[in-house]
């Protein structure tokens, strides 16, 4: 019998979050390949946008794809190539980082990056009484990073919270550790730190701990890394809240795509996973100790 | 003094001779094709091969330039970010001109790309030769500079090409001539011109001499500064040509465009048989090296044996084995 | 034509240290050495002579483990042995001083001397002791450089002395010198010969290669002659005159070594150099070379001759006012010098003259690429033709035109280099050590050639450490000392003693400048 | 001919002489400190300096190893991923042993780290020397391999150290002895031992000889294979020591640990005055080079002039200027 082929194209595990994506994608593939004998899910990772474009060509050159689930490295560069696959009659599911032309996708599953920034900002405005000095660590120059920063800036707009500094730390804990040390040397008074990703938050926390500085009230991240959720559960004073941006969204997307293929349940449209504030009260829902992320 | 007969002279130098050392990379390529076929017969399908070779065109074109730089005794780590920078400049220029010039802004932009490439190469060349800074460090510095400039130009985001130009520009990557994709034709043309320059012109001789022994070159009246600077300029021009082909494929410049290309480029050159310490350059070997790299990546996608986490390891092993084949064939 | 001479078949004086048994060496299909059987005895100086490319260096490398024979073998102390590395030969007591300098330029003199056999104290390298011994050993050879200098900064002659000192550091049984004096001047040569004699007195064996037949005559107990890779014979040293040796080497009669000098007459100034200064080496030197003249430059090692001319042709920072045929030149690089018609041939052929890993033709044409590039591209055929011409004209002995320059014998490399520089068609030719490592027959050819050049209206400047050569060849000789011209000799005054005096002693004021001619 | 001795050319050398060439990197360092102070006086505050120097310890330690490799004529691009790999192995081992051995698993783990480092170095060394593969390519291959292994081991996630070990292990990074942070002491100790080995032992001489002129070294009875392999092993051991210090800093190994460290390491070595083509190595210059790099990054954050987008450009410019200072001081 002709198997239906679902290709999953995602970035290589170049940092914690993408590692989570790879983990969940592979798990989904394994489960589905076992459960649905008529479906074959193929997962391919690519270390760069260029490589991902190549991978798309390679995947569609050999066989006809019934569906493609893609988490694009970058939006611009992947738009045309995905369109080419679509033109071959393939069902397209886009995850997280969108394409430039939304008309290409049949299904879109994503987190809300603006909300990640804004909800965190709102929390700080609230807790700091609308006043205080902040430092921010951003990831790498990409749309997602921009959106989070924008959401955050919108969130504090109108308050007296002041961003003292904002620099790239490449979504990397080491770089974040160093950057935080330097922030601490540069600014004698910091009320709160926001790292727009939990990998970076780990480095930030270590630097603060080592500096023994006491005026810093909050150090927040984002993404729902299990170590950070654990802190929220444990009622950590410095990191009492978190915003989710679960890499498991790839699994959601794969299952929905397969449902569309075999389930006689047409699935189309956009699914936006909310990024509500995770607090001590609801943290357990977001805690997956077995996931690598 | 009486004339005594000379020991018999050996025959005239033949012009075309087969050189096993040069054949190394091609043997490695062949081996890879066979392995690929065994792993997945689709590997040798015309579509797949044409895709892969088309893709390898960027690295091949840049690596042809790198063959000059390395042959002349230099090194250029900045090529990847230079490619991003030039792509950015080109797109910005084309977008700016599109309203007034229409699709004519495309050839104009290509001209700008070439000028930018030459200028970038000149900067590298001058820092290395006049500043007398170890090429590794000098171009690591400009790598940071070009990368930062593209980030700055794009405000950390992307610089997409104007929609009105997209369709007109598309054929530069996606078009074919007599069934052969345009990037392949362009890279072959670049390689052909380059091998003419490197093997048939004065400049090519000077390049190899500067790389083989700086003193001998100097004592022979060759200006190391000029020779090496020109090599960097050629490198810049090659990066520009690659950027020109690249734009329609991805349609945008981003701060991550071309990241780590330098490693691929140098790898292609070395797999191709050119020694990193300078001397004779092997243009066609370099092209074969670029194709080998792209084939390995392709093989990783087409095969299903390897855990996604281990892809890089398998690639590493294959590269080492390819080098061993190369070495062994000598 | 070969005269019959008494061969030495007598019973060996000392014990036999090394015997070569039918040694043969082939490179591909080419045989460069065949069936060489010689005995090297303790307490004996055994000279090997032969034309350039005869196979002398090859034989030495075979004996000292640098290369392996294709056929035949070695017997050391009565035992057949095979050396696969030079180190094994050294362990067996055999050491080679190379014809070409083999030192690591980036390391110091002392480090090079003791490389691979550093002195240690409690496992720590004993630099102090090594420097002390290095100084002593070098001083014995008359070399006063600091053992702390990087070899890169050491003059060629001193490098050779370092290389020799290295071979004298340990007690070897057999020391092989491959043209040790090619880069040395009188003083150093004397010291070296002295040392060689002392080695003999200590009952060591010595193999000695030189194209300076006077040295051979003074030293050798036995002389083995090679020609075209074959052994002509071994002869008792003192029975051979220099002329005998030369004729055995070339297998034909030789005419006079030096061509007749042309009539001295008023000549036009061609190259006029005023106030040349090369910081650290040369101080305010002025001279004039005339059309049709061979002008010699004499001096001891370190007099600054090489630096003077490297400064003039733009290879070293310095300044000088240079006029060619009355027109001022501003030369900032070797290229500009070549284009202006001034050709300079380096004394250091291996490091600065030839691309050793490159074929002969590209080496030949490297300074004159323009001549082979009429339009867009280089004409390989013309290059091959030029190579064939050069091979004929300079008698470059190559068994194949497809060799790399590094595969030529030392003397043939020198000829290739000479051909290379003359291909640029200079009107002033500056040759630094023109016959370094060239056999006697070819020397005559080169001298004739230089004479022919000036006959064509060029000027030729010859820097040489062989006083005989300068006297025989030149029309006029300037003598340098410590970076200055210390005097001038010409005509009858051109004698070794006059030159030596000027080279070593402070000049009296009357002779301090270049006579009235400049 | 009369024998007249030449005038002595140079005065007797003193045993300890000041060498301006060696001083280059320290002058650059000094210049940087002054500029830093002018930009922001906090730059010279003890906490800041101690932070920065502590941070530079990893790169310094690894770069000390790289000084051997480069001095001997090799190159190692794999150090960053090797560090990640060793960190991963070490943490996994410690975690496994923690239940039975308690905090003793920490020293045991350190031993394992060293063994792993030596093994990795040996692999690199053998591929380069016995396999006769250009070091750039060989270690680019193993770089992919080590990186893939750590990704595989961690399932792409993090390998955190057991909570029970954290506190006991913390002092290795955060502890001080007589007020000096431990990593600084460790890196000084490593540099001191290394300079002893490089300058005072036979092995050090062999290393420099192998890098300065392979033929001469070989003719002097030095085994290039052995010398260079040992250099890679030393490099491996240094990476292991760096990894040991690194673990307590963030308490985890991740697939991004050590990314691009190789570039920093090579830059430190070259800024420190060791030539990439091999020969004499400059251990203390290397250490200064590592500190310079970290100081530049620190200065970027402490100054307010530079747009975040342009940080890399300014870093590039400063590195080039530092090299010019170095060159100029010669
Ligand atoms: N690696 C090689 N491959 C081919 N031919 C070689 C090689 N090495 C040397 N030869 C040839 O062997 C011959 C003998 O060379 P050798 O160096 O022994 O001469 P030589 O007697 O020392 O001459 P010279 O006086 O010029 O130093 C030459 O013709 C040379 O070209
Ligand atoms: N690195 C150095 N540092 C100091 N003095 C040096 C250095 N190198 C060379 N010298 C000195 O410079 C002078 C000129 O050297 P050189 O031997 O090249 O002159 P030359 O007349 O050409 O001799 P040769 O007969 O060897 O060609 C000598 O006094 C020499 O000792
Ligand atoms: O890779 C990105 C991750 O690191 C960031 O935190 O969230 C969005 C992802 O695309
Ligand atoms: Mg010889
Ligand atoms: Mg000289």
Automatic annotation (TrEMBL), chains B, D:
Coiled coil: none annotated. CDD domains: TM_PBP1_transp_AraH_like. The chain crosses the membrane at residues 20-40, 52-70, 77-98, 104-128, 135-153, 173-199, 230-252, 258-276, 283-303, 309-325. It is a multi-pass membrane protein. Keywords: Cell membrane, Membrane, Transmembrane, Transmembrane helix. The keyword Transcription does not apply. This is Ribose transport system permease protein.
TrEMBL record, chain C:
Keywords: ATP-binding, Nucleotide-binding, Repeat, Sugar transport, Transport. InterPro entries: AAA+_ATPase, ABC_carbohydrate_import_ATPase, ABC_transporter-like_ATP-bd, ABC_transporter-like_CS, P-loop_NTPase. GO terms for molecular function: ATP binding. It holds the Pfam family ABC_tran. Gene3D superfamilies: P-loop containing nucleotide triphosphate hydrolases (3.40.50.300). Residues 18-253, 264-507 form the ABC transporter domain. SMART domains: AAA. Belongs to the ABC transporter superfamily. This is Ribose transport system ATP-binding protein.
């Amino acid at each position: 019998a002709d198997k239906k082929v679902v290709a999953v194209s995602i970035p290589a595990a170049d940092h914690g979050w993408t590692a989570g994506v790879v983990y969940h994608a592979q798990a989904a593939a394994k489960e589905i390949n076992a459960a649905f004998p008529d479906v074959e899910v193929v997962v391919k990772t690519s270390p760069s946008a260029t490589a991902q474009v190549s991978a798309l060509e390679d995947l569609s050159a050999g066989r006809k794809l019934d569906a493609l689930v893609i988490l694009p490295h970058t939006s611009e560069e992947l738009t045309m190539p995905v369109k080419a696959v679509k033109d071959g009659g393939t069902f397209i599911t886009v995850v997280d980082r969108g394409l430039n032309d939304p008309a290409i996708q049949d299904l879109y599953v994503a987190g809300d990056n603006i909300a990640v920034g804004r909800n965190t900002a709102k929390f700080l405005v609230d807790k700091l009484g609308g006043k205080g000095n902040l430092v921010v660590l951003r990831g790498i120059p990409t749309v997602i990073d921009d959106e989070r920063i924008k959401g955050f800036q919108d969130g504090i707009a109108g308050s007296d919270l002041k961003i003292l500094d904002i620099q790239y730390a490449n979504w990397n804990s080491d770089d974040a550790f160093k950057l935080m040390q330097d922030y601490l040397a540069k600014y004698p008074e910091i009320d709160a730190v926001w790292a727009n990703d939990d990998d970076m938050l780990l480095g930030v926390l270590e630097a603060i701990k080592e500096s023994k500085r006491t005026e810093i009230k909050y150090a927040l991240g984002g993404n729902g890394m299990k170590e950070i959720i654990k802190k929220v559960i444990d009622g950590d004073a410095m990191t009492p809240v978190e915003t989710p941006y679960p890499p498991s969204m790839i699994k959601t997307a794969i299952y929905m795509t397969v449902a569309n293929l075999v389930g006689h349940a047409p699935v189309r449209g956009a699914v936006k996973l909310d990024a509500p504030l995770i607090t001590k009260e609801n943290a357990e829902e977001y805690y997956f100790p077995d996931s690598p992320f | 003094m009486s004339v005594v007969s000379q020991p018999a002279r050996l025959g005239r130098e033949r012009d075309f001779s087969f050189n096993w050392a040069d054949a190394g990379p091609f043997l490695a390529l062949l081996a890879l094709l066979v392995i690929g076929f065994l792993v997945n017969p689709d590997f040798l399908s015309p579509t797949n091969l044409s895709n892969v070779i088309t893709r390898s065109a960027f690295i091949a074109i840049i690596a042809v330039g790198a063959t000059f730089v390395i042959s002349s005794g230099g090194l250029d780590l900045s090529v990847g970010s230079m490619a991003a920078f030039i792509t950015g400049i080109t797109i910005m220029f084309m977008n700016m001109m599109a309203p007034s010039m229409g699709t004519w802004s495309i050839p104009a932009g290509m001209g700008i790309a070439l000028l930018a490439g030459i200028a970038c190469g000149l900067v590298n060349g001058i820092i290395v030769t006049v500043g007398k800074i170890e090429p590794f460090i000098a171009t690591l510095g400009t790598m940071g500079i070009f990368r930062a400039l593209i980030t700055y130009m794009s405000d950390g985001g992307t610089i997409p090409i104007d929609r009105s130009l997209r369709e007109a520009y598309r054929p530069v990557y996606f078009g074919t001539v007599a069934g052969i994709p345009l990037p392949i034709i362009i890279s072959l043309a670049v390689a052909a011109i380059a091998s003419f320059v490197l093997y048939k012109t004065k400049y090519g001789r000077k390049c190899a001499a500067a790389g083989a022994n700086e003193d001998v070159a100097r004592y022979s009246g060759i200006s190391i500064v000029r020779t090496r600077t020109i090599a960097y300029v050629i490198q810049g021009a090659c990066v520009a040509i690659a950027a020109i082909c690249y734009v329609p494929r991805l349609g945008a410049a981003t701060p991550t465009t071309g990241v780590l290309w330098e490693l691929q480029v140098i790898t292609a050159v070395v797999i191709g048989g050119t020694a990193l310490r300078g001397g004779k350059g092997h243009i066609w070997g370099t092209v074969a090296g670029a194709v080998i790299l792209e084939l390995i990546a392709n093989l990783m996608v087409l095969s299903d044996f390897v855990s996604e986490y281990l892809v890089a390891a398998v690639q590493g092993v294959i590269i080492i084995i390819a080098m061993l084949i190369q070495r062994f064939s000598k | 034509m070969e005269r019959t001479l008494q061969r030495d078949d007598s019973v060996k004086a000392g014990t036999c240290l090394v015997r070569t048994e039918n040694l043969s060496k082939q490179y591909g299909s080419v045989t460069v050495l065949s069936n060489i059987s010689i005995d090297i005895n303790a307490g004996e100086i055994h000279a090997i002579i032969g034309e350039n490319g005869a196979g002398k260096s090859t034989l030495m490398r075979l004996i000292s483990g640098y290369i392996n024979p294709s056929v035949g073998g070695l017997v050391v102390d009565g035992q057949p042995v095979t050396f696969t590395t030079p180190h094994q030969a050294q362990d067996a007591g055999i050491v080679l001083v190379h014809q070409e300098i083999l030192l690591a330029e980036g390391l110091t003199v002392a480090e090079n001397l003791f490389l691979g056999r550093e002195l240690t104290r409690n496992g720590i390298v004993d630099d102090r002791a090594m420097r002390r011994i290095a100084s002593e050993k070098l001083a014995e050879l008359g070399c006063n450089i600091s053992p702390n200098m990087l070899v890169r900064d050491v003059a060629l002659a001193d490098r050779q002395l370092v290389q020799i000192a290295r071979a004298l550091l340990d007690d070897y049984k057999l020391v092989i010198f491959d043209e040790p004096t090619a880069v040395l001047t009188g003083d150093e040569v004397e010291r070296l010969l002295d040392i060689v004699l002392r080695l003999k007195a200590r009952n060591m064996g010595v193999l000695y290669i030189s194209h300076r037949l006077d040295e051979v005559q003074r030293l050798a107990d036995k002389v083995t002659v090679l020609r075209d890779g074959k052994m002509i014979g071994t002869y008792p040293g003192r029975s051979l005159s220099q002329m005998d040796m030369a004729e055995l080497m070339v297998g034909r009669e030789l005419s006079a070594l030096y061509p007749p000098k042309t009539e001295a007459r008023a000549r036009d100034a061609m190259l006029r150099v005023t106030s040349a200064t090369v910081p650290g080496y040369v101080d305010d030197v002025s001279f004039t070379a005339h059309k049709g003249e061979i002008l010699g430059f004499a001096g001891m090692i370190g007099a600054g001759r090489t630096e003077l001319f490297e400064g003039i042709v733009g290879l070293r920072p310095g300044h000088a006012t240079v006029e060619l045929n009355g027109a001022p030149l501003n030369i900032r690089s070797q290229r500009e010098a070549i284009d202006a018609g001034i050709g300079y041939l380096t004394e250091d052929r291996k490091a600065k003259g030839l691309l050793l890993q490159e074929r002969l033709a590209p080496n030949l044409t490297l300074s004159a690429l323009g001549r082979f590039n009429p339009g867009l591209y280089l004409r390989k055929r013309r290059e091959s033709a030029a190579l064939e011409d050069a091979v004929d004209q300079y008698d470059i002995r190559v068994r194949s035109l497809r060799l790399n320059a590094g595969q030529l014998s030392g003397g043939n490399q020198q000829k290739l280099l000479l051909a290379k520089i003359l291909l640029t068609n200079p009107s002033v030719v500056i040759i630094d050590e023109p016959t370094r490592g060239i056999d006697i027959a070819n020397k005559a050819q080169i001298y004739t050639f230089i004479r022919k050049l000036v006959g064509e209206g060029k000027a030729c400047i010859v820097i040489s450490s062989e006083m005989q050569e300068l006297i025989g060849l030149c029309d006029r000789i300037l003598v340098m000392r410590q970076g200055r011209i210390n005097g001038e000799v010409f005509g009858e005054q051109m004698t070794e003693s006059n030159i030596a005096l000027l080279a070593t002693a402070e000049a009296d004021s009357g002779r301090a400048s270049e006579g009235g001619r400049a």
